[in-house]
Amino acid sequence: MNTNSNAYTVIYTTLVVVVVAAVLAFTAMKLKPSQDANAKAETLRQMMSAAQIKPTDELYATKNTGVLQLYADNIDRAYTIGLDGAQNGTLSTDKAKIELVDNLKPQNKAIKEGGDVTLPVYVFKSGVCVIPVYGAGLWGPIWGYIALQPDGKTIAGAYFDHESETPGLGAKIKDEAWFREKFIGKQVAFGTEQPFNLAKNAEQTGAANAVDAITGATMTSKGLGEALNVWFHAYEKHLGTAAVNPNEEEE
Questions:
Q1: Contact, 55 vs 95, CB < 8 A?
Q2: pLDDT grade, residue 17 (50/70/90)?
Q3: pLDDT tens column, 131-189
Q4: How many other C-beta atoms are found inside a 10 Å radius of the C-beta of residue 102?
Q5: What single-letter DSSP state applies at residue 41?
Q6: CA distance 127 to 144
Q7: How far is CA 91 from the centre of its chain?
């Protein structure tokens, strides 16, 4: 074949593309189980950090298998609810087949549109339950986990993360322990228009549901505040009516 012909160029280019695509597909297939395991362990670390199972730095120093075991040892039960507050599913807590609802973007959309949701509730043996929050920051998605005491409204701990917030500013929602610690002991005002107030000088009001926004991170703080309120509203028919206690079966 004439290596200078157009036909040769087309055939050669096609073969290269096919081979590269096959290699990439094979690599992605081989890496997916490891990536899924890392994502699951990351979610569990964030949840257990919020639930105060262990300090955050210790959780991140623990290997994936240890994180799975720690969760299995400390979780009492996990289930999902709808916007009506009723349970609509269960999540396995067995170490070998832990189930999570960690793709929060479609749940966030369904909450806002009043559609069908499967909102997770993770109840630990310590008595706290953990729920997620999700929303939009300045540059991308932000999310986190809020741990609530058995009364269903007092915050026991929090953990927040982001995709691309500004280092030293919006990224402080994840990087600064003091910000997360400000939520501990605060209360969610279920049944009100604004269950939680995250804003500049919010704490000056003396309200139990108020935390000051991060200075210099106005849009990230606003996004997190909106996310908290959207998701607290979604959970209020379940958590705002009665405490969620460990070792108590859902009806």
A1: no
A2: confident
A3: 999 999 999 999 999 999 999 999 999 999 999 999 999 999 999 999 999 999 999 99
A4: 16
A5: H
A6: 20
A7: 16
Please give the backbone phi and psi of residue 87, each rounded to the nearest 5 degrees, phi first: -65, 135
Backbone angles phi, psi at 209, to 5 degrees: -110, 30
Q: Coil, strand or helix: which one is 102?
A: coil
The pLDDT of residue 106 is 96
Alpha-carbon distance 10 to 18, whole Å? 12
At residue 248, what is the residue type? Answer: E
Instruction: Name the pLDDT band for 251 (thresholds 50, 70, 90).
Output: very low
Radius of gyration over every alpha carbon of the chain, rounded to an integer in angstroms:
22
Q: Which amino acid is at 216?
A: G
Asked if residue 180 lies in contact with residue 171, where contact means CB atoms within 8 angstroms, the answer is no
Residue 169, classified by CB atoms within 10 Å of its CB into exposed (0-12), middle (13-18) or buried (19+), is middle
Could you tell me the maximum CA-CA distance found in the chain, to the nearest angstrom?
Answer: 83
DSSP assignment of 133-190: EEEE-SSSEEEEEEEE-TTSSBEEEEEEEESSPPTTTTTHHHH-HHHHHTTTT-B--T
Q: Which of 170, 153, 126, 157 is nearest to 232 (CA)?
A: 153
Burial class, 206, CB count within 10 angstroms (exposed 0-12 / middle 13-18 / buried 19+): exposed
Residues 225 and 196 sit within 8 Å (Cβ to Cβ): yes
In angstroms, how far is CA 214 from the centroid of its own chain?
A: 20
Structure tokens at 211: 């935390």
Instruction: Give residue 206's identity as a one-letter amino acid code.
Output: G
- Confidence band (pLDDT; 50, 70, 90) for 16? confident
